Amino acid sequence: MSAAPPITATLPEPRADWALFLDFDGTLVEIAERPDQVVVPARLRPLLGALTEALGGAVAIISGRHLDGLDALLGSTRPALAGLHGLERRSRDGRIHRPPDHGDQLDGLRKAMHAFARQHPGAIVEDKGSALALHYRSDPALEHAARALIEHHCESLGDAFRLQSGKQVLEVGPAGHDKGTVIEAFMTEAPFQGRTPVCLGDDVTDEDAFAAINRLGGHAIRVGTDRPTAAGYELASVNEAYQWLNRLARQLQPRH
Ligand SMILES: O=P(O)(O)OC[C@H]1O[C@H](O[C@H]2O[C@H](CO)[C@@H](O)[C@H](O)[C@H]2O)[C@H](O)[C@@H](O)[C@@H]1O
User: Fold this and answer.
1) CA of residue 167 to ligand 1 center, whole Å
2) 3-state class of 55 per DSSP?
3) What's the start-to-end Cα distance of the chain, in Å?
4) Is 11 exposed, middle or buried (0-12, 13-18, 19+ CB in 10 A)?
5) What is the pLDDT of residues 80-125, one digit of tens each?
6) Total structural domains in the chain?
7) Whose CA is nearest to atom 20 of ligand 1?
8) Is the pLDDT of residue 156 over 80?
């Protein structure tokens, strides 16, 4: 993180040649006690529509959730999407890019996580097929035991899988993909190619995205103020993120 630019108070002036990458949980929706309890604000869908129009379609949501779960939350809005922290994505033209599923290799860990959740009511298993998440938001004291359990299983899984920490969650999924690699993939194709990438995110896993954005000469904006970051800019909350994105959409609105 030594190459991180200092946080700049003034955010960059919106430009029509930006490509916008938006994290979901903690950036576009407030964090909830459980993954299935998030509330998608009514203002999100019109905002995504306005941003997509203003930026020539170059808007993507990049999340740790899987694509189907994101589509269910977003309803008829069908933006470019990346799921499972970059493992899978949907291009603007609707093509799905997803490596073969080796989620069955996680069966041992899957069973162990479910047994752990049965023993500890504060733990929740989120099974995303190719990846598994063990949440402990309802009982943060479980982090140590949850991590020990997962690390034990990761030893036998080898290098093909990696453990990622997030907000009160530990996730195991295929190695070699992250939010940085998926932004780089989007930037090779229309309508993102040739634009300046801009990314908003709140979590540790968004730091991979911020590092890629910095390499690509774009603007990384961290939502929240709770830890060190590679982002050069900061917005204090989900609400501030909405205010700034609304201003962006208004300022760049194409004149008809
Ligand atoms: O990349 P994101 O879109 O930010 O997704 C990261 C993870 O978000 C979800 O978990 C987090 O949000 C939950 C709902 O607010 C919260 O209960 C949990 O404690 C957070 O870790 C989602 O459930 C995960 O699959 C995503 O990887």
Assistant:
1) 7
2) coil
3) 44
4) middle
5) 999 999 999 999 999 999 999 988 999 999 999 999 999 999 999 9
6) 2
7) 167
8) yes
In-domain check, residue 57? yes
Query: What backbone phi and psi angles, to 5 degrees, belong to 140?
Result: -55, -20
State yes or no: is 202 an active-site residue: no
pTM of the predicted model, to two decimals? 0.96
Nearest atom in ligand 1 to the alpha carbon of residue 25 is 4
- Would 166 be classed as within a structural domain? yes
Tell me the CATH number at 71: 3.40.50.1000
In this structure, the residue with its CA closest to atom 25 of ligand 1 is 65
Q: Measured between alpha carbons, how far is 202 from 205 in angstroms, rounded to an integer? A: 8
The mean pLDDT of the chain is 95
Mutual angle of helices 143-157 and 107-119, in 10-degree steps? 160
Asked if this assembly's ipTM is beyond 0.95, the reply is: yes
Percent of the chain scored above 70 by pLDDT? 97
pLDDT in tens, 158-190: 999 999 999 999 999 999 999 999 999 999 999
